[in-house]
Automatic annotation (TrEMBL):
<dbReference type="InterPro" id="IPR001088">
    <property type="entry name" value="Glyco_hydro_4"/>
</dbReference>
<dbReference type="GO" id="GO:0004553">
    <property type="term" value="F:hydrolase activity, hydrolyzing O-glycosyl compounds"/>
</dbReference>
<keyword id="KW-0464">Manganese</keyword>
<feature type="binding site">
    <location>
        <position position="201"/>
    </location>
    <ligand>
        <name>Mn(2+)</name>
    </ligand>
</feature>
<dbReference type="InterPro" id="IPR036291">
    <property type="entry name" value="NAD(P)-bd_dom_sf"/>
</dbReference>
<feature type="binding site">
    <location>
        <position position="284"/>
    </location>
    <ligand>
        <name>substrate</name>
    </ligand>
</feature>
<feature type="binding site">
    <location>
        <position position="171"/>
    </location>
    <ligand>
        <name>Mn(2+)</name>
    </ligand>
</feature>
<feature type="site" description="Increases basicity of active site Tyr">
    <location>
        <position position="110"/>
    </location>
</feature>
<keyword id="KW-0479">Metal-binding</keyword>
<keyword id="KW-0378">Hydrolase</keyword>
<feature type="active site" description="Proton donor">
    <location>
        <position position="172"/>
    </location>
</feature>
<keyword id="KW-0326">Glycosidase</keyword>
<feature type="binding site">
    <location>
        <position position="148"/>
    </location>
    <ligand>
        <name>substrate</name>
    </ligand>
</feature>
<dbReference type="InterPro" id="IPR019802">
    <property type="entry name" value="GlycHydrolase_4_CS"/>
</dbReference>
<keyword id="KW-0533">Nickel</keyword>
<keyword id="KW-0408">Iron</keyword>
<dbReference type="Pfam" id="PF02056">
    <property type="entry name" value="Glyco_hydro_4"/>
</dbReference>
C-alpha cells in the first residue's frame, strides 16, 4: 500500500487533535508517510502542532515526517491529500452570525439561515484562494473539504473550478447520526449501508440496511419513537446542546414519519421553537469558545509540558474517522459507500442537474460514483428547491457583488420569509462583516 502525504489546512482548528487520533486509529486503512500542517495564524497553529509532535512520536512512530508551516509551497508540494477545515473570521465571527439573526427574532445558527449566509460569504474567497494554491503546487492532490457552510462552499467551488474533479466536499453529520443508529442496532457504523438524499444539512435517510441487505429502518424508527434519540459519538455524547438537538429528531419523526431526518432540519421545520430556546448571550459559538476550544487548548498545553501522551484522554471521533475512511476509499480504490456532496446530474431525477446534492456514493480512485436516487416526494422536493434557490442566490450574490441577489437569497430562506426583515438582517450582517464580505452594490 502506497503511503500518503497529507496536508491539513486550518491546522489550528479545534478538530485537529481529534483528527490526529483518527489518523492513528485508521493507520492500517490510510497509512501515511508525512503530515504537514498549514494555517494562516502561526500563533494559533503552534501549540496544536507542538502537541501533535508529542502525540505522533508516541502513537505514530512509523510516520516519516511531520512539519508545520505558514508557507504555501511547503504546505502543498508533494501532497497526495489536502484536508481543508478553515473558519474565516474565527469563532468570534461565528458568534455574530448567531447573535445578529437572533436579535432580529430569527434562527441564529452557523450554517442555517442568515448565519450560514454570512459564514458562506466569508468562506468563499479563502476557499478559492486555497484551491488555486493547492493546484499551483500539487496539481494532482485530492482536496477533501469540510469547511462550512459546506453547501455554499461546494456550490461556489463547482462554479469557480468546473473542470476540477478532485475536490470533494463532505459533512460528518449523517455519519454522526448513523453512530446512534448503530448503537440502537448493536453494531458498528461501518456495518450499515445508508440510503439518503438532500442538500448538505438538509436531508433524509430513506433506508438503513446491513451489508447482507436486511432492512433495519423500521427498527430504528420504532426505537426513536419509543425510546427517544441520543448522540453516541464520544465528541458530542455529553454535550447538552447536541443532546437537545438529537431529542428533536423524535419530534420530527412523529410529525413527518416517512423518512429519518438530518438533525439540521430542526432549524427549518421548527424555527420559532429554535429561537425561543436560545440565550443570545450564550449561543453555540460561546459554548464552543468556553468548551471545545478551551478543552483542546488545555489538552495541547498538557501534552507539550508532559512531553508524553501518558495519562491523557485521546480518542478518535467520528468526524475524523469518517474523513479518513473517505480518503482511504479514494486512495486505494476501495469502492466503499459514503454520503458525500456531488453535482446532481440526474441522481435525484426531479431536482435540477446543477444542484450540489448530498447522497451515498461509491468512492473510487476516479472519485465518487453516486447511486441513483430517482424521484423524491413533493414535500421534500419543495423544501429542497427553496433551500437550493437560497444557496444558489447566495453564491450568485457573491460572484456578482449584488445586494439585490443577497436580498432575494435571504427573503427565500425559510427561517426569514419576510422581505423587510431580510433587508434589515442583511444590512446588519454587511455592517458586521465589513472586513470580509465582497462589496454588495
Ligand atoms: N463539514 C462538517 O461536517 C464539519 C464538521 C466539523 C467542522 N467543520 C468545519 O471545520 C472548520 C473548523 O472548525 P473549528 O470550529 O475548529 O474552527 P477554528 O476556528 O478552531 O479553526 C479554523 C482554523 O483555520 C484557520 N484559518 C482561517 N482562515 C484560514 C485560511 N484562509 N487558510 C488557512 N487557515 C485558515 C484559523 O486560523 C484556525 O486555526 C469550520 O469550517 C467548521 O465549520 C465542518
Ligand atoms: O456546534 P459545534 O461546533 O459543536 O458543531 C458544529 C458542527 O456540527 C456537526 O458536526 C459534529 C459532528 O456531527 C459530530 O460527530 C462531532 O464530531 O461533532 C461535530 C461538531 O460538534 C456538523 O456536521 C458540522 O458541519 C458543524 O460544523
Ligand atoms: Mn456538517
Amino acid at each position: 500500500m502506497k503511503k500518503q502525504n497529507l496536508t491539513i489546512v486550518g491546522a489550528g482548528s479545534t478538530y485537529t487533535i481529534g483528527m490526529m487520533m483518527s489518523l492513528v486509529a485508521e493507520k492500517e486503512v490510510f497509512p501515511l508517510k508525512s503530515i504537514t500542517f498549514y494555517d494562516t495564524d502561526a500563533k494559533r497553529q503552534e501549540p496544536v502542532a507542538k502537541a501533535t509532535e508529542v502525540l505522533l512520536r508516541d502513537k505514530y512512530p512509523e510516520l516519516e515526517e511531520f512539519c508545520y508551516t505558514t508557507d504555501k509551497k511547503e504546505a502543498y508540494q508533494g501532497a497526495d491529500f489536502v484536508f481543508v477545515q478553515i473558519r474565516t473570521g474565527g469563532l468570534k465571527m461565528r458568534e455574530l452570525d448567531e447573535k445578529i439573526p437572533l436579535s432580529n427574532g430569527v434562527v441564529g445558527q452557523e450554517t442555517c439561515g442568515p448565519g450560514g449566509f454570512a459564514y458562506g460569504m466569508r468562506s468563499i474567497k479563502d476557499m478559492i484562494e486555497i484551491i488555486n494554491d493547492v493546484r499551483k503546487y500539487a496539481p494532482d492532490a485530492w482536496v477533501l473539504n469540510y469547511t462550512n457552510p459546506a453547501a455554499i462552499v461546494a456550490e461556489a467551488l463547482k462554479r469557480e473550478f468546473p473542470e476540477d474533479k478532485k475536490i470533494l466536499n463532505i459533512c460528518d453529520m449523517p455519519a454522526a447520526i448513523m453512530v446512534s443508529y448503530a448503537k440502537i442496532l448493536g453494531c458498528e457504523i461501518f456495518d450499515l449501508v445508508p440510503e439518503y438524499f438532500g442538500l448538505n444539512h438538509f436531508g433524509w435517510f430513506t433506508k438503513i440496511s446491513d451489508k447482507q441487505g436486511n432492512d433495519l429502518t423500521d427498527k430504528i424508527k420504532n426505537s426513536i419513537l419509543n425510546q427517544g434519540f441520543i448522540p453516541k459519538d464520544a465528541e458530542i455524547l455529553n454535550d447538552p446542546s447536541w443532546i437537545q438537538t438529537f431529542k428533536q429528531v423524535e419530534v420530527m419523526l412523529r410529525d413527518f414519519p416517512q423518512y429519518l431526518p438530518n438533525t439540521y432540519l430542526q432549524y427549518y421545520l421548527y424555527p420559532s421553537k429554535m429561537v425561543e430556546k436560545e440565550d443570545i448571550e450564550n449561543t453555540r459559538a460561546r459554548q464552543v469558545i468556553n468548551g471545545r476550544e478551551k478543552r483542546v487548548q488545555k489538552l495541547a498545553k498538557s501534552l507539550i509540558s508532559a512531553n508524553s501522551t501518558e495519562g491523557h484522554e485521546l480518542e478518535a471521533d467520528i468526524h475524523g474517522r469518517y474523513m479518513v475512511r473517505v480518503a482511504a476509499s479514494i486512495a486505494y480504490n476501495n469502492k466503499e459507500t459514503y454520503i458525500v456532496i456531488v453535482p446532481n446530474n440526474g441522481i435525484i431525477s426531479n431536482l435540477p442537474k446543477d444542484a450540489m446534492v448530498e447522497v451515498p456514493a461509491q468512492l473510487t480512485n476516479e472519485g465518487p460514483k453516486a447511486f441513483s436516487v430517482g424521484e423524491i416526494p413533493r414535500f421534500q422536493k419543495g423544501l429542497i428547491e427553496g433551500q437550493l434557490a437560497y444557496e444558489q442566490l447566495t453564491v450568485d450574490a457573491y460572484f456578482e457583488n449584488s445586494y439585490q441577489l443577497a436580498l432575494e437569497a435571504l427573503t427565500l430562506n425559510r427561517t426569514i420569509v419576510d422581505a423587510p426583515l431580510a433587508r434589515k438582517i442583511l444590512d446588519d450582517l454587511i455592517e458586521a462583516n465589513k472586513d470580509y464580505f465582497p462589496v454588495l452594490k
